[in-house]
Amino acid sequence: MSQTVQSAAPAQRPTSNTSDPKSNQYCSNIADAAADARFAWQKETLSNLEREIEGRIKILEQKRVEYEEWLRKRNEFLAKADETVVAIYSRMRPDAAALQLSNMQDEAAASILAKLNPRNASAVLNEMEPARAAQLTNVLTDAARRNQEGDKS
């Protein structure tokens, strides 16, 4: 069984089946212009694709900056609960600690709770109003979720 191999032939000027020399001349005259138009179209298409890629790169760069900002905030969040402050709260009675943490900003209170041992943290949360305890627990779980998402990336 024989196979035919087709080779890429160079662009040829179109030939006309008509014997009119003017139409033949017209076809041969526009062949170069048509090729130029095709190259211009290809160049424009490539330029559009390049702009699209650059746009996507900018979006990715914005996401990277956003992630770095989140990471910075997370580190600040964890730094707010100095070990000395955590030690103080761990030695307080749960009802007194609950009263203090209830009046603090969410991030600071949650970071202290996160650094307390689970037994102390649960005792403190048990002494708080249920709505405030739930609010601080949401801050804690959001921080933990973000931390896990950051580890997967």
From TrEMBL:
What the entry lists under InterPro entries is as follows: Mg_transptr_MgtE_intracell_dom
Q: Name one Pfam family in it.
A: MgtE_N
**Segments of this protein annotated with the region Disordered:** 1-26
Alphabetically ordered keywords of this record: Coiled coil
Q: Which residues form a coiled coil?
A: 43-80
Keyword Coiled coil listed: yes
Which SUPFAM superfamilies would you find in this protein's record? Answer: MgtE N-terminal domain-like
Describe the location of the Magnesium transporter MgtE intracellular domain by residue ranges: 82-145
Q: State the name under which the record lists this protein.
A: MotE family protein
The organism of origin for this protein: Microvirga puerhi
